[in-house]
Amino acid sequence: MTQKKALLIASSYNGLSGPSNDVRNMALLLGELGFISTQCCEHQATRDGIRAAWNRFIESLSLHDTVVVYYSGHGGMVESTSPVSRDTPWRHQFLVPFDFVSNAHHFNGITDREISYWLKRMTDKADNVTIILDCCFAGRMARDPSHGDNAKPRGLSMVRFEDIAAHVSILETVRELRLDAFPEENPSAVRIAAASPTESAWEYCNSNGEWCGVLTESLILVLRDIVGSNRTIPWRSAMIRVSELVQAEFPQQHPRVEGRGNRHPFSRRETITGEFPADKNATDLLIQGGRVSGIHQGSLYKLMHSGNQIAEARVMTSDAFQARASLEPWDQTQFQLLPSSHLTVVLRENTFHKLPIVVHPSTPELENVMRTSRFIQPATRRTPGPLATLSRQGQSITVSNHFGIRIFEVSWPANPTQVADLIRRLEQLGRAHHLLGLRPEPYEQLRHGVTVEVNWFGNTNRPPFRKDGTDYLTVNDRITIGLRNSGSEQVYAWVFAINGLGRVSLPRASSIDLPAGREEVIGNRGRGLPITWPTDCPYNGALPEAIIVVLTNSRFVDLGHLKDPVGTKHHRRGGLSKLEQWTWKIAENRTIGDETGDDVCFESIYIPYLLRR
């Protein structure tokens, strides 16, 4: 008899607060879906405890079982600092059990090689396996300034490569390990990761006062939406919505699905993603996919019939699971001649999802104006993680950012010009949010040797600026931003400063040439870059801000349009790269230029900090 079985693991090593809550919430969801769960949590989740539980779990599996393995806790990653042979791994990732120890004599983490071996054993016995890892391996960020003490990274640093390499060698010697494959290379499994290998994944105290992993919280919400709708979509589509929810809280965390991402959640059914069925109605097209599938208002789709493109359609509205579209351009005669069946749509150009704003009930006119924006929309009751909240206080409206910090006020009632200015300032927050989340696709990833340093101008007594989110700048400080290229290839850098109101500025007006072996310091030609408090922003303690450095391999890339684009005219050259097209969407949320631009490799370096007075 086939069954649905789950192994749920929680390790709260080193002060994590959310893993047990995550396992409890995941067990509730899986129980509603008919799973029988085995839990290995906290003091039971030692290295030996996890190994024993995982091996017993594998032994219990049958061919057609539906299998889930879920882990919530710390992860870690180390890389070799010296060359290794072609057959020797240069990077090790690992999970951190409750009794974790790592030193020259002993390492008791659970390596990616062991997970790969166990995953191979599971897929040898069962053909429907999903592994979910709510942890990260980078350990780069120690603190998210926006959330302060209400967020913790799920990555562990300070582990030596040599210790793990010796541990793996011992396992191979005693035949406890076979290097079959990495987990993501197993073609028979679905793998959900909380972040890319070089990013931090976060747990935080949510609006209900409960600590949880932001991936787990978002994943459960999306899966409940799918179950409640009596519809089903592939993992790859579901994870688009999961990523949007995660990035509403932590823009630099990008969850991903690997392996059989075209499978539907906990099912053997597979669907090729990116193509959605469409039905012809009296006046428009009904697309069988909505926000949860990444279909957003304003996106342009190719309308297909029997594999051939017959028209284009623009999305007019998008609900959770359905969207309505109209021919672009509209042609009544062409619409009437469309086939009545076998229609599908394929994405041609996308827009960003509109970020939610909580509007005070006494200002419905703001909701109407907001619905016409390309960046923001009124929040609904079910909308998690609003970008900002508007509260009415007498003759004024107070705007608080996503973290509850008051950032500005406007008089109310307001005339149309003042309303337009309020919408502009809210859209400015939205553009900054998208810029903070800018990241390359794997094929666009730039390999480089650039390091970025922030220093206080003229003050050599202060310790080096910490780039992991734990440091702060004070009004009237003066700083320099240094970029050193220790790699072998020339790169080009754009440096952006994002203040607490979402305003994007350029400390250097154009890109910076960085030949191999060279260094450039911004702010050292005068008296440093001055640190100021944002105009019109009330003082409420510390304000989260950031420096973003975008590195590219092309001197022709122009990102100057990202600088406070409203009301500014920018010259647009022809033949824009995909990076430039994407950043024009950040600036204006509409497509600029041909979608088939040149491939440009890039990387985005994020340095968060708190601003104090």
Automatic annotation (TrEMBL):
One Pfam family it belongs to: Peptidase_C14
InterPro entries hit by this protein: Caspase-like_dom_sf, Metacaspase, Pept_C14_caspase
Indicate yes or no for the key word Transport: no
> Which GO terms of the cellular component aspect does the record hold?
cytoplasm
Q: Which GO terms describe its biological process?
A: apoptotic process; proteolysis
Q: Which residues cross the membrane?
A: none
Q: Which UniProt keywords apply?
A: Apoptosis, Hydrolase, Protease, Thiol protease, Zymogen
Where's the Peptidase C14 caspase domain? Answer: 4-257
Gene Ontology molecular function terms on file: cysteine-type endopeptidase activity
The domain of life is: Eukaryota
Family to which the UniProt record says this protein belongs? Belongs to the peptidase C14B family.
This chain belongs to which protein, by name? Caspase domain-containing protein
